[in-house]
Amino acid sequence: MEDGIEKVEAPELLPQNAEAIAEENVSGLMPEVEHAHGPHGHGSGIPWLDVIVTVSVVFISVISLVVSIEHGKSMEKMVDQNQKLVVASTLPLLSVGGGMLDPVTEKPLERLILANNGVGPAIIDKFEIRYKGVDYTPHTLLNACCAQAVGKQWSGLVFSGVSGSIMPARETRDLITLKPRGPDDKLIPAFEEARKDMSFHACYCSVLDECWETDFNQKRPHPVKECKVSPNENLW
Residue 167 in 3-state DSSP? Predict the structure, then answer.
């Protein structure tokens, strides 16, 4: 080489720069495209098909809701019916009757009978026997109705109280039993005449705390929330 000409050295290309230059000089290389991150559609791309699918989903949802509501109503009816069956299977029904013969000896006597003709036990909170509108205890009733006929001689009298007791279904109890004291007995005829002015009142409940009041003149007892007993009532 001639003197006076400076020697210029070309800068060395780093590997990374060389690779970048190589990619830029390659013809046909597409630039990298950034991908969008927006929401993706789930439609089929066919409008009428998308409408049918949407309508079908709404229709099935409505049908499911209707079926669920009707099923709930059916369950409520079943629960109500089952409750009524339970109440009916424990229903007591009191009645008052009489008898003129001893069921054992078949001899004449006077009987006043309380019976539970229902299918469940009767919890008797109160039972009253009223003579001319006034309630009496077993000890005072015969004095009020029949003392003038027989005086103070109450032999042959049997009675039982029922207030505050439980009477099973199909059971009977003798409220009053009068046995004849001889051929000239006047007690039974006097009591039979007094029966015309006697009335009865009771309030009782079932084992499910369903309560009723009755005066025994109506076909069905009247339902009440509870049986209330006053301290001054004369209960039998």
Answer: strand
| Beta-ladder partners of 31 | none
Q: How buried is residue 119: exposed, middle or buried, by Cβ count under 10 Å (0-12/13-18/19+)?
A: middle
pLDDT of residue 38: 46
**What's the rounded Cα separation, in Å, for the pair 68 and 77?**
14
Consecutive H or E run containing 222: strand 222-224
Grouping H, G, I as helix, E, B as strand and the rest as coil, residue 85 is: helix
CB atoms within 10 A of CB 136: 19
> Per-residue pLDDT for 126 more than 90?
yes
Would the pLDDT of 40 be above 80?
no
Is pLDDT larger for residue 150 or for residue 3?
150
> What is the maximum alpha-carbon separation in the chain?
180
Q: What is the mean pLDDT of residues 109-138?
A: 90
How far apart are the C-alpha atoms of 174 and 40, rounded to whole Å? 89
CA distance 205 to 227: 8
User: Two tokens at 161?
Assistant: 């109280």
Instruction: Compare 224 and 51 and report the one with higher pLDDT.
Output: 224
Q: How far apart are the first and last CA of the chain?
A: 150
Report the alpha-carbon distance of residue 172 to residue 111 in Å, rounded.
12
